[in-house]
Write a structure and sequence with these properties.
It catalyses: N(1)-(5-phospho-beta-D-ribosyl)glycinamide + (6R)-10-formyltetrahydrofolate = N(2)-formyl-N(1)-(5-phospho-beta-D-ribosyl)glycinamide + (6S)-5,6,7,8-tetrahydrofolate + H(+). The protein is α/β, with parallel strands linked by helices and 223 residues long. It has 7 helices and 10 strands. The C terminus is likely disordered. Bound molecules: 5-O-phosphono-beta-D-ribofuranosylamine.
């Protein structure tokens, strides 16, 4: 039976696009995006979804006096589609514990850093300011603590000496578009699951080389 995703977005929707492409081309087999829900009516990702004839909905968080009220409405909207997985794809809202606990092992997020480094916002600028050599992205199961759930797949990218946040963000985003479909496919197929707070891989567990993207280190250029 075809599996169903509901995607939550707030903005551009480039991860939505990569997931959609994977659903259409077999990268995420036997799966459809049942709906895209945004908390911002002006999110460009809504147009991406509409162009692909995916149902879209908007629930503006500003219409709700409390975080809990918004999350309850959002949950009701999502559950009408009975999704196998709820996918946060650039959804810029913190979710209540009640919401998160309603989707045990069925709520995933992508965060633009190598978690547990740099949870929260402005990860690229912070990585540059800290002088780290490697930055990246993580797909993880969502738990009540922000940007802290068990990691499914990570991608590492080098930080170049002349990077600014925009250049580094573009490099990380390209990696995000590779790993998010891979992670969703692994979870939807049952290969990867959340058990007792940890990621469990059935069949032979993949090696790090299978669950991380590491560019080949070419060394510093010669003087
Ligand atoms: C991505 O960098 C994602 O990691 C973060 O928000 C951004 C969303 O980008 N959570 P897009 O809307 O998918 O283009």
């Amino acid at each position: 039976m075809t599996k169903k995703l509901v995607l939550l977005i707030s903005g551009r929707g480039s991860n939505l696009q990569s997931i959609l492409r994977a659903c259409q081309t077999g990268g995420i087999p036997d799966t459809e995006i049942a709906a895209v829900i945004s908390n911002r009516v002006e999110a460009p990702g809504l147009i991406v979804a509409q162009a692909a004839s995916i149902p879209t909905e908007v629930t503006d968080h500003r219409a709700f006096p409390s975080r809990a009220g918004f999350d309850t409405a959002l949950q009701q909207q999502i559950d009408r589609y009975a999704p196998d997985l709820v996918v946060l794809a650039g959804f810029m809202r913190q979710l209540t514990d009640t919401f998160v606990e309603h989707y045990p092992g069925r709520l995933v997020n992508i965060h633009p850093s190598l978690l547990p480094a740099f949870p929260g916002l402005h990860t690229h600028a912070r990585a540059i300011a800290q002088g780290v050599c490697w930055h990246g992205a993580s797909v993880h199961f969502v738990i009540p603590e922000l940007d802290a759930g068990p990691v499914i797949i990570q991608a590492a990218v080098p930080v170049h000496k002349d990077d600014d946040p925009a250049r580094l963000a573009a490099r990380v985003l390209a990696a995000e578009h590779e790993i998010y479909p891979q992670a969703l496919s692994a979870v939807l197929s049952g290969w990867c699951s959340l058990e007792e707070g940890r990621v469990r891989w059935s069949k032979p567990a993949p090696s790090c080389a299978d669950t991380a993207i590491n560019p080949v280190f070419t060394g510093p250029s010669s003087p």
